[in-house]
Amino acid sequence: MTGRKNHFGGPFRRGCNKNADDVCVCPSCGYIVEYERGVPCNSLLCPKCNSHLIRKIVLEMSEKVDQKKENNLKGEKAYPKVNPELCMNCGSCEDICPTGAISIIDNVAFIDEDNCKKCRICVTVCPVEAIN
Fold it and tell me: What whole-number distance in Å separates Cα of residue 125 and Cα of residue 93?
């Protein structure tokens, strides 16, 4: 019996798909070393500044979370926007809006930013994701 094959015809190996972002990074000085499977990045020390390394993807995700938190603290939530090509005139957003800022005009949802409080409930109820 032969083993499973990958899409290139070679043997299938679970978890062996490396990419360019699969590296360990020093959050202090930016030192980079290739990630080695089975060796956690946080077990490695940076030779330049002696800090523990972290996986690049984890660093990027934490930076995104920090940016979102910072924007929320500043009150910079974006107004929801309607994609008129996706809107199917169901009225779900209009019914759920607590401030009445949404109305259906010419079979497309319209959001009045003067009345919108940026609660974004409309985004969650749109069945076709026409509001983002």
Answer: 6
